[in-house]
Amino acid sequence: MTDLFEILHEDDDLLVINKPAGLVCHPTKGDERSSLAGRLRLYRGAEQSVHLINRLDRETSGVVCVGKTDEAARELRKLWESREVEKQYWAIVHGHVTESEGTIDAPLGADDASEVAVKDCVRDDGHSSQTRYWTQWKFERDDEKFTWLRVAPVTGRKHQIRIHLQHLGHAIVGDKLYGLDESWYLKFVKDELTEVDWQKLVLKNQALHAHTLRFHWHGRDWEFVAEPADEFVDFIETVSESEEDTYCD
């Protein structure tokens, strides 16, 4: 653990990090600590190779793999491109998900009706996309219903998990773009969210965490597990005894 990020694993070829929520992967106009790439340069030194193999949205926390050599990066990227990497996420969503498990099979493409240029949506002419999910626990807080899900994207489309869970009817808690109100995202980028808006969002960052990565590489099986931040865990665990008895699966 450095003051830059939590290190899950490091050797001559590979660095694996638990990225905190709220940190962008790519450099921004801020200082070097304002992005994961910038922090990696501080950690490795400007002259050293840094290859982000997978990327997470700003507000998504969890496992990120970094190739420390050009050769390792090429090999690892081939694993991702060939879908030989098992990825599992944790998500907290609004409402109680009825099914114990299921697969969301819905094509994704650009949301032409949105004011937000980066927003995608489910559309018939989109790219084939599938996401599997398993219900871990249904619970209530402050008279609102929530579900903790384990999620595994089969394909790797932009914002796939967030869009698919919204399509299922259970938006991720704290998601400003694919949550209950798209205007939250527009207000967020302008730093105009009100106290009432934050209360409706429930959590500061979207409740999506890249928990586990598994793949076979260099003749062995690798598994990396990143534990979510206290805010994520506390939201699931801080319920009354009566609610726990009623809603724990």
* Average pLDDT metric: 91
Under the CATH scheme, which architecture of the largest domain would be assigned?
2-Layer Sandwich
Q: What's the Cα radius of gyration?
A: 19 Å
At CATH level 3, the topology of the largest domain is Pseudouridine synthase
Order of helices and strands: EEHEEHEEEEEEHHHEEHH
**Unreliable segments of 5+ consecutive residues:** 240-249
- Count of alpha/pi helices: 7
- Count of structural domains: 2
The percent range for strand residues is 25-35%
Helix/strand structural class: alpha+beta
Termini gap: 34 Å
Q: What's the total count of β strands?
A: 12
CATH superfamily of the largest domain: Pseudouridine synthase
Largest sheet: 10 strands, mixed
Shape: globular
Relative helix content = 10-25%
CATH class of the largest domain: Alpha Beta
Give a nutshell description of this structure:
By secondary structure, the chain is of the alpha+beta class. The chain contains seven helices and twelve strands.
Which helices and strands appear, and what pairs or packs with what?
Elements: E1 6-10, E2 14-19, H1 36-44, E3 51-52, E4 61-67, H2 70-81, E5 86-94, E6 101-105, E7 108-110, E8 120-122, E9 130-141, E10 144-153, H3 160-168, H4 183-189, H5 195-201, E11 208-217, E12 220-225, H6 230-237, H7 241-247
Parallel strand pairs: 4-11
Antiparallel strand pairs: 1-2, 2-4, 3-4, 5-10, 5-11, 6-9, 7-8, 9-10, 11-12
Polypeptide structure, described:
The chain has 249 residues and is α+β, with helices and mostly antiparallel strands. The protein has two domains: 82 residues, Pseudouridine synthase (2-Layer Sandwich), CATH 3.30.2350; 153 residues, 2-Layer Sandwich (Pseudouridine synthase). The protein is globular, with a radius of gyration of 19 Å.
